[in-house]
Design goal:
By secondary structure, the protein is α/β, with parallel strands linked by helices. The protein has 29 helices and 19 strands.
Length: 900
């Protein structure tokens, strides 16, 4: 049956409904952001887990830089616990009349019975009362039914089904003494109403203490719920047994409680003092005003009467519901920003890799070639020196060698001590050992002198070259080529300053010596083999030394040196080509990944970050109110905003992104700007709000709330500024640009309209719409035509484009007007202007220009970016100009005043 009473809308009902409407609206946005965030990380995990199972080199690349981008499991679980909660109102109270009275006030109509009979039936503590748990939900028609919690509806004839009713019949609220069915006793009364508040949140009224223990009641309310707990108090204080119930509630549901006195009679101070003394209320100073939401933890409150309940209950409800969503939005945004910063850092690393690796390869090739050429030059010119060196060495060593040969103890040869003759075979073995003695000593002496002749190459080629090559090998994905090229380099270096003139079997030097030894043996044509005596050994050694050709040995050594160098050089070149081929493939994959980070991953995450931050801002501070229009630009409208988030006055820039690209650009702009530390030369960005009802709901706009200044530089020059003010503005702009560059950002749109002035005409840079880190730039052509450096049109540029733009801005500051330079004024189109700039067209010199100022602006707009001055040089130059021009004029003015 439908109730005859029509719904009445009280201020409390309307405002409370609005709180829940806003909460549910924000909950939808929060859930969507959470879902898209999970989807983003899931795709990242899927893409790069597939990469790990593919080719090992690709896997290492894909998994390496981006493997740290993930959704932490604990954060994901915690956020699900917050985002998935369903809000509802849980009404407890001292007794049934108090609970029913509070329920009627909240819904704005007399749905539950009151009266003396109900009060008497309830009794002290509610232990004699047998009234059911009530659950109010929304439906198109008014309906009552009995149901087991979370299970099924019971077939039962209720009094409300029997006729017309205005108030829920008392007999349907009560469990009759003769009821023996356990299901009937545990069943809750579900009351379905077509009510605006119930469309947003259900309401639960707990049963009497004699029907169901409080811990059992609360067990149904714990999972994925966000309760607005209200406790109705009918007396001046709460009975002791009810305080125990409240402690049980606090243990099961750790949320603040809204205490409400349903009667305006009595002394509320006693109740407040009792609640504070039991730790149920935070202060004794008074009731919670709970005006604006805050990120702090909500506190319990006390409403002194039903008549003024909306003043404390509505802010209390707003703060409770908002605090949960603020926590979720903050944690989501923290995660977004953290991962976005990781993306940007990885983009820097990848850009650096793409730039540095080819240079390292080229450097390695050049330095090895220089080393090889130097060593070959030594080998070619040292032959004659070696000849002399060998002769000197032999001359210096001859007596010692003869002495050592005479005293040589042969190995594996038995020589008679009385000088008996030995066989021809043993004679040859003896001669060979004498020859080895001579060659080994000669080897040591020649090697030591050769090493000293090329030792200077150590400092020139060892160190930087080896470190560069080591870095290239480490970054190469194929472990099979690790250290191969380095080993070949070491062979070259070994040939340079670890030369070993070793005469192993088969070497050219060994063959040369053996030929000479054979000739010695042939000359010794004995009929009978000689006796092996010291004199004989000395004679053999002397013949061997005299028979050695220093010229032939020198030639052989240098030839051997060149052969080793050529062999090592060829091996090095081959391994370097292999290393280069591997890096070429790796760099192609790196560039592809860098492109995906810039074009897809970072912009997509930046948009999620913008949404989560904007949701947090609107939860905390609400939607800003648009004042009068201050100006229009290419990408938005700027309005005055009196007050927002404790900042006043503010400027509000509304941007309606027409497509995903503009959304992404705006999101990245907001991230870069918000990530910047505050600086006095940059306009402060306070926050952002996404307005889904902009233009009457026809479009979605991003409202950027920022610091409000007096005027822009264009307006300031038009009104007139002194030379000192203009030079100070130039200094301020340079300081602001330098700070951006120190943070790794390029502005890319320095112009008159993007420099704002305060009331003292000090400048701040604004509109970071094109502001990006160099590693995140895609080579797009952006900016304002007359301020754009020529290289911007090529897509390859660096932060010197801001120096160029400052040079043009400085021309305006020195001219003191907004009149276009003649070279730009004559251009009939953007294309003509750009073509002229690329051909070298620049602003003309005006008669009023100081020479040093003209030289500075000319240097800043130099067509060659590498020739433009660093801003660290521009700043002191400007300071010097300002001291010279302004201090002198100030002193002149002061002297004129004194003379007058």
């Amino acid at each position: 049956m439908e109730a005859s009473s029509s719904q009445k809308s009280s201020p409390l009902t309307r405002e409370l409904t609005r709180v829940f409407v806003n909460h549910n609206k924000h909950a939808i946005l929060l859930k969507r952001n959470m879902k898209e965030t999970e989807s983003f990380f899931r795709e990242m995990r899927h893409n790069y887990s597939n990469a790990r199972s593919s080719v090992s080199s690709t896997a290492s690349l894909e998994a390496g830089p981006l493997s740290c981008i993930s959704f932490p499991r604990q954060d994901e679980e915690d956020l699900h616990g917050i985002v998935g909660t369903v809000p509802y109102i849980l009404i407890l109270g001292q007794d049934c009349p108090a609970r029913y009275q509070l329920l009627n006030s909240i819904l704005g109509e007399r749905l539950l019975p009151l009266g003396a009979e109900l009060v008497e039936a309830c009794g002290p503590g509610g232990m004699t009362c047998r009234r059911r748990k009530l659950c109010f939900t929304h439906g198109r028609q008014t309906r009552l039914s009995l149901a087991l919690p979370g299970q099924y509806e019971l077939v039962h004839q209720l009094a409300a089904h029997c006729g017309h009713w205005d108030t829920v019949p008392r007999q349907d609220l009560e469990i009759h003494d003769d009821c023996e069915d356990p299901a009937q006793r545990l069943a809750e009364l579900e009351i379905t109403l077509h009510h605006s508040l119930l469309q947003e949140a259900k309401i639960v009224v707990v049963p009497c203490a004699g029907v169901q223990p409080i811990e059992q009641v609360l067990s149904d309310c714990v999972q994925n719920t966000l309760p607005l707990i209200l406790y109705a108090v009918s007396g001046d204080t709460i009975p002791i047994d009810q305080l125990g119930v409240l402690q049980q509630v606090g243990a099961a549901l750790p949320f603040p409680v809204g205490f409400v006195r349903v009667s305006s009679q009595g002394d509320s101070a006693l109740l407040q003092k009792q609640l504070v003394s039991h730790g149920l209320l935070s202060t004794i100073s008074g009731n919670c005003s709970c005006g604006a939401p805050s990120a702090g933890k909500p506190q319990s409150i006390l409403g002194e009467s039903l008549e003024r309940l909306h003043r404390v209950l509505v802010p209390f409800a707003r703060q409770l519901l908002t605090s949960q969503q603020v926590e979720a939005a903050t944690r989501l945004n923290t995660l977004h920003c953290h991962c976005l910063d990781l993306f940007i850092n990885q983009a820097f690393d990848m850009q650096r890799d793409l730039q540095i690796t080819p240079r390292r390869l080229e450097y390695t090739r050049e330095k090895e070639s220089e080393l090889f050429a130097s060593l070959m030059a030594i080998a070619n010119r040292k032959q004659e020196e070696m000849k002399e060196m060998i002769m000197e060495t032999l001359g210096a060593m001859k007596q010692q060698l003869l002495e050592d040969a005479a005293n040589l103890q042969f190995t594996d040869i038995i020589v008679s001590s009385n000088g008996d003759p030995v066989s021809t075979k043993e004679i040859k073995a003896c001669i060979q050992q004498i020859q080895e003695l001579i060659v080994v000593r000669l080897n040591q002496a020649v090697a030591n002198k050769l090493i000293s002749s090329v030792d200077y190459l150590r400092e020139s080629f060892v160190g930087t070259l080896e470190r560069c090559l080591s870095s290239l090998e480490k970054s190469h994905m194929d472990s099979s080529v690790h250290n191969v090229t380095s080993n070949h380099l070491k062979q070259i270096l070994n040939a340079a300053y670890h030369v070993e003139v070793t005469f192993h079997s088969g070497s050219s030097v060994t063959r040369l010596v053996w030929e000479q030894i054979k000739q010695i043996i042939q000359r010794l044509t004995w009929v009978n083999p000689p006796a092996i005596t010291p004199e004989w050994k000395r004679k053999v050694a002397q013949d061997a030394i005299e028979s050695l050709s220093a010229a032939k040995l020198a030639k052989s050594i240098c030839s051997q040196f060149r052969t080793r160098l050529n062999s090592s050089h060829d091996a090095f070149a081959a391994s370097l080509r292999q290393l280069e081929e591997g890096h070429t493939g790796r760099l192609e994959r790196t560039e592809d990944l860098w492109l995906r980070v810039r074009k897809d991953h970072a912009p997509r995450l930046a948009r999620l970050s913008l949404e989560s931050r904007s949701l947090r801002d609107v939860l905390l501070y609400g939607k800003p109110k648009l004042g009068r229009e201050l100006g229009r630009g290419q990408y938005g409208v700027v309005y005055l905003c009196d007050n927002w988030g404790g900042h006043y006055p503010c400027a509000l820039k509304s941007v309606v992104p027409p497509d995903d690209k503009h959304w992404n650009d705006l999101a990245l702009e907001f991230h870069y700007t918000r990530s910047l530390p505050k600086h006095e030369r940059l306009v402060d960005l306070h926050g952002s709000v996404i307005d889904h009802t902009y233009g009457g709901g026809s479009s979605i706009a991003v409202l950027l709330i920022m610091e409000r200044l007096h005027r822009d530089l264009y307006t300031g020059l038009k009104a007139g500024l002194s030379l000192k003010e203009r030079l100070q503005i130039a200094l301020d702009v340079v300081e602001g640009i330098r700070f951006l560059h120190s943070q790794g950002l390029l502005h890319r749109d320095i112009k008159l309209k993007n420099v704002l002035l305060d009331k003292q005409n000090r400048a701040k840079i604004t509109d970071l719409g094109f502001c990006k880190p160099e590693a995140m730039m895609s080579g797009s052509i952006v900016g304002t035509p007359i301020h754009m450096a020529p290289e911007l049109f090529t897509g390859k540029y660096d932060n010197s484009v801001d120096v160029y733009a400052f040079g043009i801005l400085f021309w305006y500051l020195c001219s003191g007007s907004i009149k276009l330079p003649e070279a730009f004024e004559k251009c009939s189109s953007k294309d003509q202007l750009w073509n002229n700039v690329k051909r070298g067209s620049r602003p003309e010199r005006l008669p009023s220009f100081d020479e040093e100022c003209w030289q500075l602006m000319e240097a800043c707009w130099n067509g060659d970016p590498s020739q433009r001055p660093l801003l660290g040089i521009v700043q002191p130059s400007l300071q010097s100009i300002m001291v010279r021009l302004c201090d002198g004029s100030d002193r002149k003015s002061a002297s004129l005043e004194d003379s007058n």
